[in-house]
Amino acid sequence: MPPVKHYCRKIFGKNKKPNYFFPAFIAFMVSMIFLPQMIFASAPSAQNLYDDGSEGGGLPHHYFAEAALSVKYDYILIIDESGSMKRNDPSGARKDAAKLFTFLSETLNPGNRVMVAGFGEKTNIYLPLTEIQGNEKVISSAIGQIQSNQDLTDMKGALTDIRSILESRKEKNKTVVIFLTDGSLTLADIPSEEEEAGKPKRDKTIREEEDDSGRAAPDTTDESAESNNSTANQTAENEYKDSTTENLPYLDQYKAYLKELCYKYRSDGIVIYPIAFTNEADISILDEIASITRGVCYKAEEARDLSFSFIEILKSITSRFIKIIKTTEDPVLSGEIEIGKYVKEMVAISLENNLNAIPKVELNSPSGEKPDYDSIIDEGVFRIVKVKSPDEGNWKYSISGDAVFVYEMVFSGILQPAYPLYLWGASLLLQADLSGLIESGYQESINDFKVSAAIMGPDGTETEGISMADNGKEPDIKSQDGIFSGVFAETGKKGFYKISFNINNEPTGSSASRNITIEMIELPVKITYMEPAGNFYITGKPLTVEVSMEKDPSYNGAFDINNYKLTFNATGPDNVEAKDMVLLDNGSASDKKAGDGIYSASFLNTEKEGKYFLEFFIRDAAEMTIPAFTGKKVEFEIKTVPPLDIEVKNNLFTGEPASLTASFEDLSKGIFKYVLKAPDGSAKEGILYDDGNAANNDISSNDGTYSASISGLDLLGKYIVSVEAVYNPGVSDMPVSAEAEFSKEFQVKQTGQAVEFDKDSKTAAGGFTIISQSENLVMLSVDIASFDKDLLDNKIIKSVKISSSPALKSKTESQVSLDFELADKIKGGQYRVSVPVVIDDLTGTSVEFGIRVQESFPPYLLGIVIGASVVGAAAVFLFVYFLYIRPKKRGY
After folding, report:
1. d(CA 624, CA 619)
2. Running DSSP on this structure, what letter comes out for residue 716?
3. What are the DSSP calls for 79-147, one per residue?
4. 438: three-class secondary structure by DSSP
5. 648-742: which CATH topology?
6. Closest CA to 475 of 435, 433, 431
7. Has domain 320-409 been given CATH number 3.40.1010.20?
8. Where are the beta strands (DSSP E) in 543-609?
9. What architecture is the 525-639 domain classified under in CATH?
10. Local structure of residue 149 (DSSP, 8 states)
11. Global model pTM greater than 0.70
12. pLDDT tens-digit profile of 860-891?
């Protein structure tokens, strides 16, 4: 691509020595008025580059359709009159298409103006800028005067003449140029070099590379040139001229000046939509015209395609939803359309075709009645009818000819890609905005819309069906906010990429489209982003921005790194934007060392809290007018102090520990400690750890969440825990604290009396006292599922049940009775068991009981004992008898 350099017009006129005192005084007074507005914190909101806002500021991209369409347009129709049109368009289809575009645009959005021009070797103005409404016959007649009799296709001459006319307008509306041509732009299509040499030369201008501060002058070729309040703009109008083009071959010079002219259109905020008619048209130069001016080049291979090309342009400009039905067999098209409550307007069009010379349109409302049309336009080759606020439901239609349905539903805007020029290989973030639908109260209808993208690369390769979602998953930021996002990464080829965003409304079968063209360029440099590297920074502290740049190792040509200029844009809270901030490698200010390949700048505008992102750009100062987005983007957040999130997982029973966790919102590392104040006023301190140790209840080490287990919570009542932390985001230490409360509401008091199992008994009763400080009635139960048989002597117990009332009244002391069932074959002895009890199945503790089991005797042991007792008694009797009784009887 031939180089095009950036020049600024001489403010004081040429060949005159300026008097500096008066302009200096004026500059001083203006700076005193506007200086407060020029700092970043109060810079104007960034504009959507592809919005349909009015010139001088524009509208928010999320406005609903009627708001966006309230913008008045100046439509400039520039139509090729070269002799080749006799062959390519013998029936004058381009005239019919131009009429359809003009009258349909006014039907959709009243209050526009139109200019009609034809061009070849000269430019013919058939209609100056004229209000469309009320002048339909005059406009139709003017378009009908388009000829096919000129010898050349002087695109540059036509655009030069038209721009001169547009500059003289007293009232400047949003301006769209439709530039239709079948020209191939060869030497045979343009004026000869001798003819061009005879034309007056343009004024040369001075290139403004840097201002007095060393900062590069803002590039007013950006879309923000439309806003005369933007700090990124110069008050003087920028002109473009490339001093090296004079050494190029004549055809290359012509093309270079043509592109230079397009940059002027762009700085004026004028979009050009070229239509490349037939395969003879030079699609490459028309693509460049579209890309530079933020338009899209449409291709119509045959004359019958021209009407649909014009409709597609209107579709992109107005964000209307359109459905086209072409007929090849049936002379009459009929069917039904489902109209949702969010449809604000319906327009039906019948186009003449080979089957129907007289277009007709008939519509029937859901009630079966014919509607009162708000407007009817009948131009012979087409018929347009409009219904405002159509009734919700199924509409029937009958149309003679090709059918076009146009619906006003929701205004759609393109948020990304946001720039016309990208560095080769950079991934493209794709974002389409339908948030107006939600803001207008139709949240539930967002699912009626499906968004996708289609991209045509420089080699003609098409990638269709690129999915875009509003689901909050990468790259989409927030679910169901009306912003649909996707990514296109296949940008490995240099050249122009045509991007079409397709928004389909499933009930009507219609679609809206937003279309742009961007260019991928290749530069022999390698760029590495370095700083800022953190996710969070503190308000009021300057940030160092650093990017390294070096020669691409794969590049073998001549290379001068000083030719390349690095800049960045910063977008802060509320979309406030600062542009064209320069990164320097000069060893001064924030740059540490000159010539080390690290380019630096200080970012001072950190007073406002919120999310920021930086985007980095590069420009070859010797050849490029505007910078290319490098694809390098960094996001971070600025806050006064990060929130300290703490959480206590508390068991409501005394004696049970509590789990304490704390973390900064950004999960950065720090120093954490806690202070616990008990209900009796006593206090204890502890440390929180991020070591993954289960003893501290820490789940994972080095994840930014710090934990501690707090024990010794033996008192009923309220506990207060405060966490004190030191936050260190790499700038300075910041003390942070947070506080939480929790309570112990239940306390178990055991009687100390063991549960007694009598001989041969399998059941026994036991109990304990529980104190409740709860405000509510709660239910107590035994958590038998958690009864651990391996804990203590729990295996001796078969079951445990509450025999008293399970309801615990608020703020009472209750006696709880339990029934224990003994397992089989348990020996007598002393045991201890632990019974888990829970409150409302939410919080619990374990109550320990002493168990005493009495021995029982088997039957055979009883017989032995009785027999032994009888034998013993007999022995005693015999002993007494022979020792005392018998001797006494015998007189001893």
Report:
1. 6
2. S
3. EE-BTTHHHH-TT-HHHHHHHHHHHHHHHHSSS-EEEEEEESSSEEEEEEEEESTT-HHHHHHHHHT--
4. helix
5. Immunoglobulin-like (2.60.40)
6. 431
7. no
8. 543-551, 564-571, 577-583, 598-603
9. Sandwich (2.60)
10. -
11. no
12. 555 676 777 778 778 877 777 777 777 776 66
Query: Could you state, in order of their start, the residue ranges of all structural domains in the chain?
Result: 65-204+269-302, 320-409, 413-521, 525-639, 648-742, 747-853, 860-892
658: left (phi > 0), else alpha (psi -120 to 50), else beta? beta
Strand order in the sheet with 598-603: 525-531, 543-551, 598-603
Average pLDDT of the chain to the nearest whole number: 82
Name the residue type at position 843.
T
Burial of 681: CB neighbours in 10 Å, binned 0-12, 13-18, 19+ = exposed
- Torsion angle (degrees, nearest 10) of CA 224, 229, 232, 237: 80
Contacts within 8 Å (CB) and 24+ apart, 450-453: 450/503, 450/504, 450/506, 451/484, 451/501, 451/502, 451/503, 451/504, 452/486, 452/501, 452/502, 452/504, 453/486, 453/488, 453/499, 453/500, 453/501, 453/502
Q: How far apart, in Å, are the Cα atoms of 720 and each of 331, 420, 674?
A: 83, 58, 10
Q: Which of 347, 501, 364 is nearest to 434 (CA)?
A: 501
Nearest to 686 by CA among 375, 697, 258, 638: 697
Show the CA angle centred on residue 163, arms to residues 155 and 187, nearest 5°.
15
Query: Is there a shared CATH topology between the 65-204+269-302 domain and the 525-639 domain?
Result: no
The pLDDT tens digits of the residues spanning 767-819 come to 999 999 999 999 999 998 889 999 999 999 999 999 999 999 999 999 999 99
Give per-residue pLDDT as tens, 298-327. Answer: 999 999 899 999 999 998 888 899 999 988
In this structure, are residues 337 and 125 in contact, taking their beta carbons and an 8 Å threshold? Answer: no
d(CA 249, CA 247) in angstroms, rounded, equals 7
Residue 59 CA to residue 560 CA, distance in Å, equals 42
Q: Which of these CATH numbers, 3.30.1330.10, 2.60.120.260, 3.40.50.410, 3.40.50.300, describes 65-204+269-302?
A: 3.40.50.410
**Which residues, 6+ apart, have CB-to-CB distance to 176 below 8 Å?**
73, 74, 75, 76, 270, 271, 272, 273, 313, 317
**What mean pLDDT is predicted for residues 170-180?**
94
Count of helix runs (H) and strand runs (E) in the chain? 13, 48
Q: Which stretch of 13-17, 400-404, 639-643, 817-821 has the lowest confidence by average pLDDT?
A: 13-17
User: What CATH number does domain 747-853 carry, 2.60.120.200, 2.60.40.10, 3.30.70.100, 3.30.70.20?
Assistant: 2.60.40.10
Q: Residue 340 has which token pair?
A: 């949702």
Give the whole-angstrom CA distance, residue 744 versus residue 493. 68
Q: Which of 631, 628, 614 is nearest to 569 (CA)?
A: 614
* Direct distance between the N- and C-terminal alpha carbons of the chain, in angstroms, rounded to an integer: 155
Q: Does domain 413-521 have CATH number 3.40.50.300?
A: no
- The one-letter amino acid code at 310 reads F
Q: Judge whether residue 203 has pLDDT over 80.
A: no
Contact 3, 255 (CB under 8 A): no
Name the pLDDT band for 184 (thresholds 50, 70, 90). confident
